[in-house]
Write a structure and sequence with these properties.
Elements: H1 3-32, E1 41-45, E2 51-57, E3 63-68, E4 74-80, E5 86-91, E6 97-103, E7 109-114, E8 120-126, E9 132-137, E10 143-151, E11 156-163, E12 169-175, E13 181-186, E14 192-196
Antiparallel strand pairs: 1-2, 2-3, 3-4, 4-5, 5-6, 6-7, 7-8, 8-9, 9-10, 10-11, 11-12, 12-13, 13-14
Length: 197
């Protein structure tokens, strides 16, 4: 091979090397960074090709994200729900709803916990006066106890109540009109049978 041919060949190899390892790498890295991606639906799959995350617009034209476990069960949802409110739902591995977070009927927040049978066993949220409250229920969904802010006696005072399985208040502990602690006890018909002080 002549000296001129070798110089030409080596020059071409250097240029090719420079392009492959420097220029082409920069082009690819620039292509990988996108300022914005527009799509009607994006699906993420795991190594086995199973769909595990779906980003899309729902039937109400609001955004939503659905998450699935490796067995294909729906385990979490986050999205804009009816009337444009936001909501988050979680499901157990069998796909049963176990918790929900979103707006209450009073346009404030509420968190609801379900047992595996689908019964509501706890609620935390607000009432029509924007006071917070917690309700605890048995496994059948029957309310047993509540803790709420009560608008009475020229202010908001706390109260804790114990309820029987029929939904009748049996014990109420709170604040009386003098600003002191008070306890009221009721019979199964809801009539006061004792109180302190």
């Amino acid at each position: 091979m002549k000296k001129l041919e070798r110089v030409f060949l080596y020059s071409m190899l250097v240029i090719l090397f420079f392009y492959v390892f420097l220029v082409d790498g920069n082009v690819k890295s620039q292509e990988a960074i996108q300022e914005e991606i527009r799509a009607r639906r994006i699906v993420i799959v795991n190594d086995a090709g199973q769909e595990v995350v779906k980003l899309s617009a729902n039937k109400g034209a609001n955004g939503e994200i659905g998450i699935y476990n490796k067995d294909g069960n729906f385990v979490a949802y986050m999205g804009a729900i009816e009337h444009g409110y936001g909501g988050i739902l979680t499901f157990n591995k069998e796909g049963n709803l176990v918790s929900a977070m979103g707006p209450s009927e009073y346009d404030s927040g509420i968190i609801t916990i379900y047992n595996k049978e689908g019964n509501i066993v706890a609620n935390m949220g607000t009432d029509e006066n924007n006071n917070g409250g917690v309700v605890i229920a048995d496994k059948g969904g029957n309310a047993l106890a509540s803790m709420v802010g009560v608008n009475q006696y020229n202010g908001v005072n706390g109260a804790i109540g114990v309820i029987n399985k029929e939904g009748t208040m049996l014990t109420l502990m709170g604040v009386n009109e003098d600003g002191n602690g008070a306890i009221e006890v009721y019979n199964k018909d809801g009539k006061v049978i004792g109180f302190l002080p």
